[in-house]
Specification:
One of its GO terms (molecular function) is 3'-phosphoadenosine 5'-phosphosulfate transmembrane transporter activity. The chain is mainly α. It has two domains: 230 residues, no CATH class; 34 residues. It has 14 helices and two strands; from the N terminus they run αββααααααααααααα. It has a two-stranded antiparallel ribbon with strand order 1-2. Strand 1 and strand 2 form a beta hairpin. Helix 2 packs parallel to helix 12. The longest helix has 32 residues. The protein is globular and about 85 Å long.
């Protein structure tokens, strides 16, 4: 396909880039088939990822070792990234090392705080918090970049805030070991996640870096950061001793946890490339809902219906945000829409009152 055709926005022809999932070529399939293959793989790997994450934290005495689990996870991710770069024959670095220093720190904050929060939070509550990344993204974009958002985005953020607050209140009432430290940790994870998205996207676009390179450098540098801190605080020795009590089980669980997460990330990126961000967010949101259901089924925990309808508020906020991206609306558009609705209602009320008189006059 010529460059002029690409710039003109024409549909891709058969010579479009190769699409693979776990090194399996799916380019020959139609887009709907590609969507179902990617969606099925996302569900399989991320449901396993969530199950393993909660399973690890149900082990007696594991609560204080979330950061050591993150260290092991970063180590595995670094190895996986190195293997993938060798398979894909990627030998040079595209993004400046200074950018990777920042990306590694933000990645460490996102995953480290997220893992550590599970020592203090109910797993469904953690998932609901992670669904609400829009809130810090919206606030940060306004304060840092001066962006302007429409009424639908603000409405989505309000729905998420209300749903999140009600879900947390329900958790605090039914969980005897509810700890606000977990809320702080998952909030910090969300803040880092909101920042890293902008930095990562900008870097990958500006330098054309492949996913495997970003994974390798972000997680390997993050591993060094965390190792230094944990050695200095003594947490590394404590974690090492705890894992040595049952190394096959603990490191085995951590390997499955890390491998499913790594493969899941690669498949989500493929889904974005083949079907778009909207489809990817829809699939991952449904996956999170299924993960919460599985959490209640396989891991005994108290349940209240406030979980259900407060979670639905969060889901509604997510899809309102997605709708606003496809159908942007300004404050002026909202005013016009409201005025149109008011005029329509007034006209219907007027016609309803005047209708019989007109009918009698016509007779």
């Amino acid at each position: 396909m010529s460059r002029s055709a690409q710039r003109g926005g024409l549909n891709p022809e058969p010579d479009s880039p190769k699409i693979s999932i776990l090194f399996l070529d799916i380019t020959r399939f139609s887009q709907p088939v590609q969507f179902f293959i990617c969606s099925g793989a996302v569900f399989v790997f991320f449901i396993l990822y969530g199950y393993m994450q909660e399973l690890i934290f149900t082990i007696d005495g594991f609560q204080p070792f979330g950061w050591y689990l993150t260290l092991v996870q970063f180590g595995f991710y670094s190895v996986f990234g190195l293997i993938e770069t060798r398979i894909r024959n990627i030998t040079s670095r595209s993004i400046p090392i200074q950018t990777y220093f920042l990306l590694a720190l933000l990645t460490l904050g996102t995953m480290g705080f997220s893992n550590a929060s599970l020592g203090y939070l109910n797993y469904p509550t953690q998932v609901i918090f992670k669904c609400c990344k829009l809130i810090p993204v919206l606030v940060g974009s306004i304060l840092i970049q001066g962006k302007r958002y429409g009424p639908l985005d603000f409405s989505a953020a309000v729905l998420m805030c209300v749903g999140l607050t009600l879900f947390t209140l329900a958790d605090s009432h039914v969980q005897p070991n509810f700890n606000t430290k977990g809320i702080f940790m998952i909030s910090m994870a969300l803040l880092c996640d909101a920042i890293i998205g902008n930095v990562q996207e900008k870097s990958m676009k500006n330098y054309g870096a492949p996913n495997s390179e970003v994974v390798l450098f972000s997680y390997s540098i993050g591993f060094v950061y965390l190792l230094i801190v944990m050695v200095a605080t003594g947490d590394f020795t404590d974690g090492l001793q705890f894992f040595s009590t049952n190394p096959k089980k603990l490191y085995g669980y951590a390997l499955i946890f890390s491998l499913t997460g790594y493969l899941g990330i690669q498949i989500v990126l493929t889904l974005v490339r083949t079907c778009g961000a909207f489809a990817a967010v829809t699939v991952t949101t449904c996956r999170k809902a299924v993960t919460i259901i599985i959490s209640f089924v396989f891991f005994s925990k108290p349940f209240t219906f406030q979980y259900l309808w407060s979670g639905l508020l969060v889901v509604l906020g997510i899809y309102l945000n997605l709708f606003s991206k496809r159908h942007p609306m300004s404050m002026q558009d909202l005013e016009v829409f409201i005025e149109r609705c008011i005029r329509t209602i007034k006209l219907k009320l007027y016609n309803k009152r005047q209708g019989p008189r007109h009918y009698m006059a016509n007779v």
